């Protein structure tokens, strides 16, 4: 039985010199067989295990992670949560996530620091204005909050913004329900809650292959031996192509490093998220005070968790152009994560050519925001015979039928 | 220095093994999807086609490692790719 985290437990443990805290999750040895094995211990994978145990009654579940929990893209993103996507299919999926974000800390008894502080997309051209107008109307019809901002209103939200840039700020699209969450806490919270429900979280356990008999997956070969499974769900982001190759098929995915950086911490300065797709700079401020800045992805395939330096230069130049006040700040850290990008910039939640082997991948440059929703519908898909209705349009078959969910071209998003 | 580095930049323009379909009118939707969208995305040596955008504008193929960015050589379209050390392939 897990201790409940609360203000009282903080006080109680403080009086005992903090020697009474439990470990947040166990580190068990793998069993020989599980009902479901999830490959990949990021937010999506841990969340899938949690919802399987919590809502689907499937408790004989293992999460296999080759490194440590949340050490991949879950700990490498810019923590932004939003759902103002253009197409109905995406709106259903991402807004499902925003709904879950709102109650997540309470549900997991773990503070994921979800902060719906508002997110503004800036428009720098007539095309951008038309795009946010179209998308805002689409959001409105799908029940997602969207507000159009004039440049003066943008200035009210971000008083120190420079509207007269080389490509001047001509307007903005605001989603008030959007915001940020603490990425590490999402992984830890799901891990702790899943562990309490009996899920085995096995770190330092790399999947090296699949055992497939009669075109049906029977389990996974790992660095800690064979682990049998009735169903296997792969949620490994940038390395999904590598696993698919081991299972004998290809994915419509290419991997690129996507970079981010944070500044030295300063006092609260920017209380919303501001994204500029036109000149490619998006920025928010963490509760520690660091500016969190998202850069672009390299234009060539790579699995290096680093990225090219020219992208940092271009991003910092764009930030300084929009916010001259930040021009003398120092950047503390820079890193990259390997993102799995599909041609239509929409994810893949799907069955595969191998029976009982499922993939949840292709989230590309924007998977963090979808963590709860993705995990929730993927868990229900793994537990049932059919894919969850929200996940169904994101089948791998769409690349053969042509029914793409074309967010890349539709939203002009800087993916 | 930065400007010079930029002028030397080359751009990736697809995969060297990507050959045009020979019988496009006879392909099924399945085959078209595989041809257009499904990719080899190796962790290791990748055979790619590049163009030297800001330089000589020449197109060439190259074998590059997708983790280390080490190049194992370049070759003209139609030529056989350079040999790659066994440990890397």
List the defining traits of the structure above.
heterodimer; A: 415 residues; alpha/beta; eight-stranded mixed beta sheet; 11 helices; B: 89 residues; alpha+beta; disordered N terminus
Please give the most extensive interface between any two protein chains, plus how many residues each contributes.
Answer: A-B, 23 and 26 residues
Describe the strand arrangement of the main beta sheet of chain B, using strand numbers: 1-2-3-4
Which descriptor suits the 3D outline of chain A? globular
**Strand residues, percent of chain A:** 15-25%
The averaged pLDDT of chain A comes out at 94
Nearest-integer average pLDDT of chain B: 77
Taking all Cα atoms into account, the compactness measure Rg of chain A is 21 Å
- How many beta-strand segments of chain B? 4
How are helices and strands ordered from N to C of chain A?
HEHEEHEHEHEEHEEEEHEEEEHEEEHHH
How many helices of chain B? The count is 2
Poorly predicted residue ranges of chain A: none
Could you give a short account of the major beta sheet of chain B? Answer: 4 strands, antiparallel
- The strand count of chain A comes to 18
The oligomerization state is: heterodimer
Dominant shape of chain B: extended
Q: How many H/I helical runs of chain A?
A: 11
Please report which band the strand proportion of chain B falls in: under 5%, 5-15%, 15-25%, 25-35%, 35-45% or over 45%.
25-35%
Into which percent range does the helicity of residues of chain B fall?
A: 10-25%
Distance between the termini of chain A: 43 Å
| Alpha-carbon Rg of chain B, integer | 16 Å
Question: What report would you give on this structure?
Answer:
The complex is a heterodimer of chains A (415) and B (89). Chain A has helices spanning 7-15, 43-55, 88-108, 126-141, 151-157, 183-196, 240-247, 309-322, 371-383, 398-401, 407-411, and strands at 33-39, 61-64, 80-81, 119-123, 147-149, 171-175, 179-180, 200-202, 207-213, 216-222, 225-234, 253-263, 273-276, 281-285, 291-297, 331-342, 348-351, 357-361. Chain A is α/β, with parallel strands linked by helices and 415 residues long. In chain A, strands 1, 2, 8, 9, 10, 11, 17 and 18 form an eight-stranded mixed sheet that branches. In chain A, strands 5-6-4-13-14-15-12-16 form an eight-stranded mixed sheet. Chain A has a two-stranded antiparallel sheet with strand order 3-7. The longest helix of chain A has 21 residues, at 88-108. Chain B is α+β, with helices and mostly antiparallel strands. Chain B has a four-stranded antiparallel sheet with strand order 1-2-3-4, with no helix packed on it. At the A-B interface, helix 7, strand 12 and helix 10 of A face helix 1 and helix 2 of B.
């Amino acid at each position: 039985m897990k201790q409940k985290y609360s203000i009282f437990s903080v006080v109680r443990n403080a009086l005992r010199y903090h020697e009474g805290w439990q470990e947040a999750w166990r580190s068990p040895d793998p069993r020989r067989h599980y009902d479901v094995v999830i490959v990949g211990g990021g937010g999506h994978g841990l969340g899938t295990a949690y919802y399987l145990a919590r809502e689907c009654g499937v408790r004989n579940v293992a999460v296999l992670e080759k490194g440590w929990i949340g050490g991949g893209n879950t700990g490498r993103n810019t923590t932004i949560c939003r759902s103002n996507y253009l197409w109905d299919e995406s709106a259903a999926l991402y807004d499902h996530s925003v709904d879950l974000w709102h109650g997540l800390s309470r549900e997991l008894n773990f503070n994921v620091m979800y902060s719906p502080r508002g997110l503004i997309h800036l428009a720098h051209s007539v095309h951008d204005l038309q795009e946010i107008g179209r998308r805002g109307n689409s959001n409105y019809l799908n029940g997602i909050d969207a507000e159009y901002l004039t440049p003066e209103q943008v200035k009210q939200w971000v008083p120190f913004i420079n509207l007269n840039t080389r490509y001047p700020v001509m307007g903005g699209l605001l989603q008030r329900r959007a915001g940020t969450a603490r990425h590490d806490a999402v992984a830890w919270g799901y891990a702790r809650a899943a562990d309490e429900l009996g899920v085995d979280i096995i770190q330092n356990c790399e999947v090296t292959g699949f055992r497939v008999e009669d075109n049906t997956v029977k389990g996974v070969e790992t660095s800690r031996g064979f682990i049998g499974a009735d169903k296997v769900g792969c949620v490994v982001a940038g390395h999904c192509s590598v696993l698919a190759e081991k299972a004998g098929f290809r994915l419509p995915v290419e991997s690129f490093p996507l970079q981010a950086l944070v500044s030295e911490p300063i006092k609260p300065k920017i209380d919303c998220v501001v994204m500029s797709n036109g000149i490619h700079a998006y920025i928010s401020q963490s509760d520690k005070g660091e500016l969190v800045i998202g850069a672009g992805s390299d234009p060539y395939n790579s699995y290096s968790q680093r990225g090219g330096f020219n992208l940092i230069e271009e991003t910092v130049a764009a930030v300084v152009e929009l916010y001259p006040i930040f021009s003398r700040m120092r950047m503390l850290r820079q890193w990259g994560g390997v993102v799995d990008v599909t041609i239509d910039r929409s994810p893949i939640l799907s069955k595969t050519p191998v029976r009982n082997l499922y993939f949840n991948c292709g989230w590309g440059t924007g998977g963090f925001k979808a963590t709860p929703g993705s995990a929730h519908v993927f868990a229900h898909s793994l537990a049932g015979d059919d894919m969850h209705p929200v996940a169904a349009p994101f089948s791998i078959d769409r690349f053969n039928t042509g029914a793409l969910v074309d967010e890349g071209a539709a939203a002009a998003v800087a993916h | 220095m930065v400007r010079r580095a930029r002028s030397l930049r080359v751009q990736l323009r697809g995969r060297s093994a990507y050959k045009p379909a020979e019988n496009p009118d006879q392909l099924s939707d399945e085959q078209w999807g595989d041809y257009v969208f499904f990719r080899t995305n190796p962790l290791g040596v990748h055979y790619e086609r590049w163009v030297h955008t800001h330089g000589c504008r020449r197109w060439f193929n190259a074998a590059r490692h997708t983790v280390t960015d080490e190049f194992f050589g370049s070759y003209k379209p139609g030529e056989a790719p350079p040999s790659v050390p066994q440990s890397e392939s």
